[in-house]
Structure formats: C-alpha cells, structure tokens
Amino acid sequence: MDRITSSLALYHAWVSSASRRVRFVLEEKELSYQGILVNLLAFEQHSPEYLALNPNGFVPTLVHDGQPVIESSVICEYLDEVHPSPSLRPAAPIARARMRVWAKWTDEVVIRAFQVANWNRMMAPTARTWSDEEVERRLKAVPVPDRREDWRRMAREPFSEAEIAHAVANIRRTLDRMEADLGRGPWLAGDTFSLADIHLSPYIVRLGEHEERGIRLADYPRCADWWGRLTSRPAFARARIEPVVFAA
User: Whose CA is closest to 102, among 231, 186, 197, 204?
Assistant: First the structure.
C-alpha cells in the first residue's frame, strides 16, 4: 500500500460497497483526497500496517491530518461535520432522524444481506483453492470473529440456500421500505438529498445480481424514479459506483 502524502486519504477498494459510500460523499463535496487501494483478495486489509489504522481489518479507513476514522457511516457523518457545505444531512430534526434510521438499517441489515447473497460468488472461488494449512493461516490474520467465520465458510462451507433466501428476503424488505418512504418526498429522508440516499446507493446498483431471484427495480416505481435521479448526479459517476462483474 502507498504512503500517505495528503491531509485527507482514503484506504478503499473499488468494489467495496462501504468504500463507495465514502467516495460518494467525497465527490459530492468535491474534496481533494488521496486514494490508497487495498487489495482485498490479497488480504492487505489484514496486514499489520493496515490493522494499525483499522483494528477491524475492514475498508474503508479515512485518515484526516494523521488521524484514522473507521466505519463507513461514521466516516460519512464525520466528513459532513468537518466539511459542512454542501450539507448532506437534513436541517429538520425529523428528517435527520429518518436519515439515521436508514444508516442503521443499511449497517445492520442491508450490508449483511448482500454479503450472504453474494459471497459464494465473490469470495468463495478464491477461498476454495486454499489448502487446510492455508485456511488456518489466513483465518488467524482475521481480527473480527464473525468475519473469520465467514471466511472459513467460504473456504469449506458456503452459505446455504436457506441462508441466501433469508438474505434475499431482507433485500426485498429494504425495497419495500424505500418505496414507502419515497411516498413522502423525492429522497429517502424527505425533501433533500442526504446521506440516507448515499448509504443505499452501493447496494441498489447491485440489484441486477438478483434478477434471477425475481428482484427487479422496475417493480418499485418510486425506487426506480429515485434511482434515475440519483445516478444522474455527477458525483455518482466520479465515485465509480458500478455493477460488480463476477469472474466466470
């Protein structure tokens, strides 16, 4: 990994949904930052150098004036506090509360749903090639027990169809909630574009991975309209929030 040479640096991965949330905020605010790529399949996120910045071994990590900030939803609010213009948090307390409810739902439900629904295709092809000795060596470097178990399962016991079905049900539930909330305004928290919309964007871009499971954005007209307006924002393109292409 590169050395930090800027007052604002982001350790990230292009396909990491959490990284994409932070890149979207940085681009909306037109902030200059140094991007430092972390190779997830080479497990650079578990290296001693990276763990000194982020003890969980996750991406992204923001480093601002030498101080690391971790957890993508926290990083997004931090950036909005440090660089308040343009604001990405609604002014009205009730709208700000709705924004934070969406941040909580994304962190606690959506992220896990997409992990379970996709890791068999994304991570398992690499993990299945490991010998038993390599599995043990790799797992020892993973600091968070739940993530360690995920990698063990990718290597030897991928998620079951029942687990995947539960995850897909939570993706549908998310779209149902979005459709309802968009009934009161053009954006998820109400009248203004906010972090709520940014938090969901890296996951909605991946709905195409679940079309064979009957999930289609076109079946949610308010969500589809919201998505068209969100993807037309110049910052969206600059943040490179793109569909993930799986290796054949």
Answer: 197
